[in-house]
């Protein structure tokens, strides 16, 4: 790297920079290959995770939405013991630039959350582009949200949605859809470096060129695959929430991004729009952090700080007292 790229790289947190050389180059030219490589990376990251013994994980198949859509697979993480009163719950949308990833990649995150907070966490196996472009993923997530709202074991007043990267963008689109349909109340949204804007107009969206990270090239390819079903028509805010012109009435929001994340500018602008619309919003911009920093360098001090902040936000949204101890460090 030379010039601006060198200057950009020097701003990366040293603990994150030290592990980036272990991250394989991301190339979406061949999506099948990219899916396999990213699945292997997620498997290595989860290899040392020991599921808590008092958390049960199982897959279930639920009806799709709207009527006539395929069934949706969800991974349900819940306390193993029986409970009498309805539990708070998180609906989680995994990341992957709209084209990669699977619900199982976040098993460690969600199992630990259930063990710590005593809640239920549901991860949706959304249909991926380009095989299934928008609105498939958002419809799958909404099907899961409606199913959760109808489960008597879950508290309909304490349903939180969240996701990371494209999953964060889909969760934001889901919150907009839920607000507009007024069938299910969402208590909060946890948006982790969300992918919100397809227009490629911000400075941060253009400055990230590192081939090991989700960068400008992969971003354009991911959005192109996701929006291909629109055939050049108008992009709705449920697909790209940054296009929403009315953010009033959305749930309380916790949003995190990184100083060197290509989504930084669109995330900050979205948080500002939420605040201007009267939505209680907490924004964190983690210094020296790149896209996916907490996955690449989980032991870095900035990653540990991010996880503490995220978990505290979820606890506030669902109104629970954590059953475990906070993460050290």
In brief:
The chain has 329 residues and is an alpha/beta fold.
Keywords:
single chain, Rossmann fold, 329 residues, 17% strand
3D architecture notes:
The chain has helices spanning 4-10, 14-20, 31-46, 107-117, 136-149, 166-181, 203-207, 216-226, 264-276, 293-296, 301-318; strands at 55-62, 72-79, 87-93, 120-124, 154-164, 188-192, 252-258, 281-286. The chain has 329 residues and is α/β, with parallel strands linked by helices. It has one domain (4-318): Alpha/Beta hydrolase fold, catalytic domain (Rossmann fold, 3-Layer(aba) Sandwich), CATH 3.40.50.1820. Strands 1-2-4-3-5-6-7-8 form an 8-stranded mixed β-sheet, with helices on both faces. α6 links the parallel β5 and β6. The longest helix has 18 residues, at 301-318. The two termini are 33 Å apart.
Q: Any idea what the CATH superfamily is called?
A: Alpha/Beta hydrolase fold, catalytic domain
Task: Report helical residue fraction.
Answer: 25-40%
Report the uncertain regions.
321-329
Largest sheet: 8 strands, mixed
| Approximate strand percentage | 15-25%
| First and last CA, distance | 33 Å
Structural class: alpha/beta
The number of distinct β-strands equals 8
CATH topology: Rossmann fold
Q: CATH architecture, please? A: 3-Layer(aba) Sandwich
Radius of gyration: 19 Å
- Strand order, biggest sheet? 1-2-4-3-5-6-7-8
The number of distinct structural domains comes to 1
């Amino acid at each position: 790297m030379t010039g601006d790229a060198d200057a950009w790289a020097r701003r990366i947190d040293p603990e994150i920079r030290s592990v980036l050389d272990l991250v394989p180059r991301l190339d979406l030219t061949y999506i099948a290959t990219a899916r396999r490589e990213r699945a292997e990376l997620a498997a290595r990251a989860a290899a040392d995770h020991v599921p808590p013994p008092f958390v049960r994980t199982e897959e279930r198949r639920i009806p799709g939405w709207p009527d006539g859509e395929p069934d949706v697979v969800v991974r349900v993480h819940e306390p193993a013991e029986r409970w009498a009163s309805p539990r708070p719950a998180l609906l989680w949308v995994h990341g992957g630039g709209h084209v990669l990833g699977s619900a199982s990649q976040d098993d460690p995150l969600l199992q630990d959350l259930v063990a710590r907070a005593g809640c239920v966490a549901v991860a949706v196996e959304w249909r991926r582009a380009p095989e299934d472009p928008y609105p498939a993923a958002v419809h799958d997530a909404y099907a899961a949200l409606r199913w959760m709202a109808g489960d008597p074991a879950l508290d309909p007043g304490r349903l939180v949605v969240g996701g990371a990267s494209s999953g964060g963008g889909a969760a934001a689109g889901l919150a907009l859809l839920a607000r507009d349909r007024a069938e299910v109340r969402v208590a909060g949204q946890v948006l982790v470096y969300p992918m919100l804007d397809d227009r490629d107009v911000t400075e941060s969206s253009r400055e990230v060129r590192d081939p090991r990270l989700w960068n400008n090239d992969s971003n354009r390819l991911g959005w192109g695959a996701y929006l291909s079903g629109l055939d050049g028509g108008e992009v709705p805010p449920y697909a790209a929430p940054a296009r929403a012109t009315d953010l009033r009435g959305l749930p309380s929001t916790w949003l995190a991004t990184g100083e060197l994340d290509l989504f930084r500018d669109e995330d900050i602008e979205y948080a500002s729009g939420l605040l201007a619309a009267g939505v209680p919003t907490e924004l964190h911009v983690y210094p020296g952090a790149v896209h996916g920093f907490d996955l690449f360098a989980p032991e870095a001090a900035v990653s540990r700080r991010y996880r503490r902040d995220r978990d505290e936000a979820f606890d506030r949204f669902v109104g629970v007292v954590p059953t475990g101890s906070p993460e050290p460090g």
